[in-house]
Write a structure and sequence with these properties.
The protein has 217 residues and is mainly α. The protein contains ten helices and no strands. Helix 5 packs antiparallel against helix 8. Pfam families: BPD_transp_1. Its main location: membrane.
Amino acid sequence: MFDVLTEYWPEFRSGFWVTCRLIVASFLVAMVVGTLVAAFRIAPNKWLQRLGGLYVEVFRNVPLLVLLFISYAGLRRADVDIGPWTAGIASLGLYTAAYVAEALRSGVFSVGKGQIEASLSLGFSYAETLRRIVLPQAFRTVIPPLGSLTIAMIKNSAIIGVSLLALPDILKQARIVQARTFETDVTFFWAAVGYLILTGAATLAFRFLEKRFSIAR
């Protein structure tokens, strides 16, 4: 079992770091876009609410694999010069952002309306109220669901390695090693270990954040 890992360690290590880069970049996209969409969803303007709702419904109900085909093959056929990295990060990030937005929206509802009304009465604009009062509290209440979404995103990243993008992530490299050695069980066992390391690290990180920013009740 360890012979395969030792012999093909460079391939497994390379795939692991590719997956790490993909996850970190996609997570940043998901958090930024998800926060913006959540702000739209709770804005007093109905058109912004509808725009945010449209985004959530589209990206939450279209499979990630379909988004990958659209963002890469579809755009390239439309003469848009987009690389596999950009397409992969954008697809995974925007897909996850729809779930992040809904998680944040639920967290916003946990903030008392009295705080929002008090902030507006003190002269803060609605945007300042969101940025300084509502969203910081909402983030604290939705740390556990955000952790679950991050773990799901890590597992969803495996789709990118086996799609037409063929980024050399853990699963892609495992398939290459399997084709050379025909050791299917051992090869994909080590691929699974790689994903377990990533999901385990994400779990520990969000548990730390949950304890660090827990709200005393």
